[in-house]
Amino acid sequence: MAEDKEDVEQLLRQLKLVKEEVAQIKKRLSAVSKDKEEWFSKKRDISNQIREKISSVKESKTERNSFTGEARKAKQERDKLNRQITESIREIKRMKDAYLAVADKMGIKGNPSELKRMIERLEYRLQTEPMKFDREQKVMKEIKDLKKQYKEFEAVHQEWEAVAKKSKEIDVLKKKANEFHRIVQDFAKSSQQQHEVLVGDSKEIDELKKAEEEAYNKFFEHKTRFKEVNDELKAKLKELQAIKEKLQENDVALKEEERKKEQKTLKEKAAEVEEKVKQKKKLTTEDLLIMQRTESKRAA
């Protein structure tokens, strides 16, 4: 019986120790689980950022390609106009050469357009500026001389008008070419800006992917550690259950042994009480209780 008690006490000590170990393992498991979930959450957040950046890159690429396409179209128009301008410049040079040849043949020198502008400017002064008589006469004579000089150009009027018309056409073409050049620059600038955004986002995606991989590796590391600690906990709980079962078995055996011991003690005390009764000795309260218990068992 003493040996059984020692076994139970040993089991109780083991039970206490294993319970403490279980509590410690649960704490470690909780800490590992928390770290595991934090790394998983971080990995998920980074993955979401990557998806957003990839979407942004696609948009930037679409816009960049659109701007590049528009710039290409504008450049084609600009180049087409520049070719027309080049050809027109060659043509006006031939026209000027033809005009100069006729003018030289007729002994006409000067620029009719410049003469016309000078005449218009002087006539405007006469109309708008107050002048002394002698000054007015002088300006009028100057206008008369210029008109006479200008009249000489009537013989080559057709050639000069053709040159002037072609010159205006070239000016219009240059204006259009400059406008398309501005459009090319604007679209090219917008395309470059989108390209720079795209490159920046692409670099950021590369960095995020590295961070994502690191977060996943940390998550996997803690997941593996979680399984190890969880397996350790399962083994320890199994050990705890085995101790409890042994304690339950010993508890039944101890109770049976105690019952037998109690019966034996009761019989011995009952015999002592009967002896007292025979000897007519005074009975104690305990003696009376023993007699009562003995009678109860006999009746049962």
Characterization of this structure:
α2 runs antiparallel to α3 (about 135-150) and α4 (about 155-280) crosses α5 (about 285-300). This protein starts with a helix and ends with a helix. It is built from 5 helices and no strands. The chain is an all-alpha fold. The chain folds into 2 domains: about 1-245, Helix Hairpins (Orthogonal Bundle), CATH 1.10.287.950; about 245-275 and about 285-300, no CATH class. The mean pLDDT is about 85. The longest helix is centred in the last third of the chain and has 122 residues, at about 155-280. The protein is rod-shaped.
Quick structural gist:
This protein has 5 helices and no strands.
Helical segment tally? 5
Oligomeric state of the chains present here:
single chain
CATH class of the largest domain: Mainly Alpha
The run of helices and strands is: HHHHH
- State the domain count: 2
Shape: rod-shaped
The named CATH superfamily of the largest domain: Methyl-accepting chemotaxis protein
Structural class: mainly alpha
State the share of residues found in helices, binned by percent. over 70%
Intertermini distance: 28 Å
Features:
single chain, 300 residues, mainly alpha, Helix Hairpins, 2 domains, 5 helices
